[in-house]
Amino acid sequence: MTKARNRTKSVTAKVKPSRRSDAEHSMRQQPIYARTDYRGADKLAGKIAIITGGDSGIGRAVAIAFANEAADVVVLYHENDTDADETRVLVEATGRRCLTIKGDIGDETFCQNAVKKAYDVFRRIDILVNNAAEQHPVEKPEQITSKQLLRTFQTNVFGMFFLTNAALPHLRRQPGATIINTGSVVAYRGHDMLIDYTSTKGAVIGYTRAMALSLAPDIRVNAVAPGPIWTPLIPSTFPDEKVGNFGADTPIGRAGQPFECAGAYVFLASADATYITGQVIHPNGGEVVNA
Known about the structure:
Layout: E1 48-52, H1 57-68, E2 72-77, H2 81-92, E3 98-102, H3 108-122, E4 127-130, H4 146-171, E5 178-182, H5 186-189, H6 195-215, E6 220-224, H7 233-237, H8 240-244, H9 259-269, E7 280-281
Parallel strand pairs: 1-2, 1-4, 2-3, 4-5, 5-6, 6-7
């Protein structure tokens, strides 16, 4: 069994280039996904949360934070069994249950089956976090192939639609049910190397606002739009020179860590946010955006 690690020591302004992999366990500088001084207050006691992309990065941080607030967690992940297993161990170290389900959220049948499995195990679903995403930087717009475009939208947008539709019948039965979508600061300021990814994140924000109107007052729908956060997506997709200075141009002067986003998800999922829907929280290091 992997030893649970909840670390919040130093947070540096620059990060070291990592090996080319989207696996969290292979990163030379590990993301910090939990605070050692965190004390939960049972804000999510008795609730069941589904988190996509929960095997690493922000998704893992949210899974641990939810567990620290007494929720049980269902982690959907694409392919990295090692990372998913570690997330499960970290969640279970809090005393909560964690179910991991492997598959592609871009496949509607998988989403339907995953929700069914989650419900069969826990008999309820209260919180859905649409967090999984992929990105493929290119130097020029014309380098975005139809295959890449379809794949990026399939994961980042279609998967969000598929999973939400599958979960809605269960969410509607739970008072205080919530949906939280992961957007990005690039939806507001753009990114010259991530045009297709930026477009999907703009869609996430639009989807959040439209669904909030559609589902109110029964289900609250909000989003979190992180700025530069040190996750496996960064060293696995950007060249080393960009990785080395990642996040240094923010007012805070460094990249954020996954745990620095997790509190926003806890807040939006909890009874502290019962009058909030259709909104976006921006943990982005101080960048001003036109929300």
